[in-house]
C-alpha cells in the first residue's frame, strides 16, 4: 500500500470514528431527554397523587364546601412565627389569631404552633380567581384537563390598608409581567414630598422593587396581583390597594393564569357551608364600617339553606350569635349543643318513709 492510500484509509477511519461518536452522543442525549421528560410527565399531565400536592392545594369537594385541616407543628430553633406561617401557607393575621400566646419573634424550640389550615370555600362561583379581602386570602380554581382531579388552591395575601381599599367586583386579568418596573403613584410621590424627599420616577427590577418579580395586571386601572420584597406583610392590610402574594406563591400560579381569566373580588367576613350532614361557619372580623347583626344572621342562615327534599338539620343558634359577635376565623360546626343529662332523683331517707306511714294510719 502506497503512502497516499494509507493516508486516505486513515482519514476514512477517523471520519467514521467521528461520526460514530457523534451518533452515540446524539442517541445518549435523546435517551436522557426522554428519561427526563418521562420523570416530569406526571406533573405536567396532572397525574400526581394528592399526597404530592403542595400545601394549600386541595381536591375540590364534589358536594360540600369545607377543605383542609387544622394541624400542629413544633417550632424549630431560631424560627419566628412568621417563618412558620410562610412555610405552612398562612399569613400574619391568621397565625397570630390562632396562636395569641406565642411570641412572634421567639416562639422557642419545641413550642407547639397551631396552623389554621381549614377553610370554607367562598359562596361565589368556583371559577378563575376569587379574592376574599375579609379573610386576606386568594382562591384559585385552575382549569381541569382530562384525567385530572378538580382542585382548588388557596394562598394568603396582603391587601389595601385603610384609606387604600382594595376594589371589589368581577374583573379579569389583562397582562402578565416578569421582572416588572414600578412607577410610584401620585400618593407615593406626595408622601415623599411631605417628608422633604423626592420619589424616583421609576424603580427598576431588583430587590428594592415592591412588586417583586411577578405581576398580573387586572382590568382595573392601577391594580395588580403581584409579589413583594417585604414578605412579612403578607396577611396584613399593608398595600395601597393591590393584592400581594408571597414570591413563591405568585411564581407558582404566574404561568398558569391566562390573560382574560375571571377575577372575583369579594368582601365576605361570614362564610357558611356543609361537610357531609354537618353545617359549619367561619367568621372573620369585618373590615371598615361593617357590623354584625340580624342581617348577618339571616344571611348566614340563607347560606345554609339546603334543597327542600333534604332533611332539615337543627342548628346551634346560640353558638352562631356568639361567633358573629366574637369572630375567630375558625371553622366551627353549628351542631346543636348536647342536652344536659337529667339529674338523678334523690331517694328519701328511710326515716321519712316510716314517718309517712305513721301519719297515714
Automatic annotation (TrEMBL):
Residues 127-266 form the L,D-TPase catalytic domain. It comes from the Bacteria. Residues 352-361 have a biased composition (Basic and acidic residues). It holds the Pfam family YkuD. Pathway: Cell wall biogenesis; peptidoglycan biosynthesis. Transmembrane segments: none annotated. SUPFAM superfamilies: L,D-transpeptidase catalytic domain-like. The keyword Glycosyltransferase applies. The keyword Transferase applies. Gene3D superfamilies: L,D-transpeptidase catalytic domain-like (2.40.440.10). Residues 332-361 are annotated as: Disordered. Keywords: Cell shape, Cell wall biogenesis/degradation, Glycosyltransferase, Hydrolase, Peptidoglycan synthesis, Transferase. One of its GO terms (cellular component) is extracellular region. GO terms for molecular function: glycosyltransferase activity; peptidoglycan L,D-transpeptidase activity. Residues 340-351 have a biased composition (Acidic residues). The active site is at residues 226, 242. One of its GO terms (biological process) is regulation of cell shape. Belongs to the YkuD family. PANTHER family: L,D-TRANSPEPTIDASE, L,D-TRANSPEPTIDASE ERFK_SRFK-RELATED. This is L,D-transpeptidase family protein. It comes from Billgrantia desiderata.
